[in-house]
Design a protein that fits this description.
Strand order of the largest sheet: 1-3-14-11-2-10-4-7
Number of strands: 14
Distance between the termini: 28 Å
Helix content: 25-40%
Largest sheet: 8 strands, mixed
Number of domains: 1
Shape: globular
CATH architecture: 3-Layer(aba) Sandwich
CATH topology: Alkaline Phosphatase, subunit A
Length: 244
């Protein structure tokens, strides 16, 4: 299996990140919305903080459109105290667009993909860019809305200096595992649709990939534990877009 870090060294102009995107789910859905070449690669980390730290160790002259508060202009680092790792985005990227802030939809506790598209179109740039969508990371925003955790919402509050509080009143946890898996696939399908709508407005070589995969009940585990060795977290898509 090829390594994502090696693929990064090849020329690209736009890197689209679909947070927590499994290879097998992407493989089943991409042809509905996109044209291009899919390659299976190995991620640099099983969670976003580890991926950021391993993938972007230096300074980079690019624009990062961030749907995740882990990448912010406030200088608040993303930290995992248990593993003693942190990543402060302003030390690594020339420009960061805080879509996680102005594009936040409080009722769902996330940034919807259409808000990410608006942000990219409203901030034109000639620099290389990273467009980091939250989806298909939870909360799931398809027909079967499913709320699992508040991690991103709580870290967003920390960055903004807001008190910790309960969010996402419109979401409900699912009892059946198959329903959660269906909600994940619905969310991936939706974000792929929005990506397909943005691509005609982008220039240059476009790649769609992810930071890490996602566990959907394997061994009774959901999400993406840091430094887990499960292949569903490390095996990810690298998709080179062919414009129509």
């Amino acid at each position: 299996m090829k390594n994502q870090l090696e693929m990064m060294k090849k020329p690209w102009d736009v890197l689209i990140i679909l947070d927590a995107c499994r290879y097998d789910a992407f493989e089943k859905l991409w042809s509905k919305w996109l044209r291009g070449k899919l390659t299976k690669v190995r991620s640099a980390g099983s969670c976003t903080i580890r991926w950021l730290k391993e993938t972007w160790p230096e300074e980079y002259d690019l624009v990062y459109f961030s749907g995740s508060p882990y990448v912010n202009t406030a200088g608040v680092p993303a930290v995992d105290h248990a593993k003693d790792i942190s990543f402060c985005a302003i030390e690594h990227f020339t420009e960061i667009i805080d879509v996680w802030n102005f594009g936040w939809y409080d009722q769902m506790g996330t940034v919807l993909p259409e808000e990410m598209n608006k942000a990219v179109l409203n901030y034109p740039t000639d620099k290389r860019m990273i467009i980091h969508y939250v989806q298909p990371h939870y909360p799931y925003i398809g027909r079967s809305r499913c709320y699992i955790k508040e991690g991103s919402a709580l870290f967003r509050n920390k960055v903004l200096g807001l008190p910790r509080k309960h969010r996402n009143p419109n979401f409900r946890p699912f009892k059946a595992e198959k329903d959660k898996r269906a909600a994940y696939k619905e969310t991936l399908d939706l974000v792929l649709q929005r990506v397909s709508e943005l691509i005609p407005h982008l220039k240059g070589k476009i790649v769609v990939t992810t930071d890490h995969g996602e566990l959907l009940g394997e061994n009774g585990i959901w999400g993406h534990p840091i430094d887990s060795n499960h292949p569903a977290l490390w095996k990810i898509p690298w998709f080179e877009v062919k414009k129509q």
